Amino acid sequence: MFISFRYRIKTLLVGIIFLLGLALIGIQGVGIASPSRPIPSQSDGVSEGGKIFGQACIQCHTRPILQRKTEEGWRDTVYSMISRGAQVMPNEIDPLISYLSHQYGPDSSSQPAEAADGNIAVSEELGQKIISRVCTQCHAIEVVTESRKSEVEWQETINRMIMYGAVLTADEKSVVESYVTEHFGIQ
């Protein structure tokens, strides 16, 4: 009887410690106990949005940003990215949208570089980064680098990969299409 009572107490204590641990993890997970980023003040506006951009967006996206959108367009994009898992806190949304609208709006001064023919210049580094991030989720990089296809064939392949689940923004898709056509096109 004495052993049974001691075993019950020990089991009860282990259970309580386990539940306390879960409670602590749950509190930290929702950002109550120790948020991963400081809460921005509304007066910081565009500069605070730049910090949020550097913390949340650059994890998946590389510069330069090729899109030019209105504030409402960026709002739609930010909410779309949050639905895909972007780690943006509710109080960070408005500063982030202000930053994107200011830096990458239709009238912003930071326009992407254009090639001599008027098309957006595709840097080799940007194309490589996108391919490394997206294509190698399922394939060895050689599947891309050892292929030789026409522009139409690359477009068909990329569209098929998107149907299979590859995640690319419209601008990233354009960059990849240009990059692979230029570097892995039919000679």
Give a verbal description of the structure:
The protein has helices at residues 2-29, 45-57, 71-83, 93-104, 124-134, 142-145, 151-163, 170-184. Among the domains are: 43-104, Cytochrome Bc1 Complex, Chain D, domain 2, CATH 1.10.760; 124-184, Cytochrome Bc1 Complex, Chain D, domain 2 (Orthogonal Bundle). It is an all-alpha fold and 187 residues long. The N and C termini lie far apart (85 Å). The longest helix is centred in the N-terminal third of the chain and has 28 residues, at 2-29. The protein is flat and about 80 Å long. The protein is built from 8 helices and no strands. α2 crosses α4 (93-104), α3 (71-83) packs across α4 and α5 (124-134) packs across α8 (170-184).
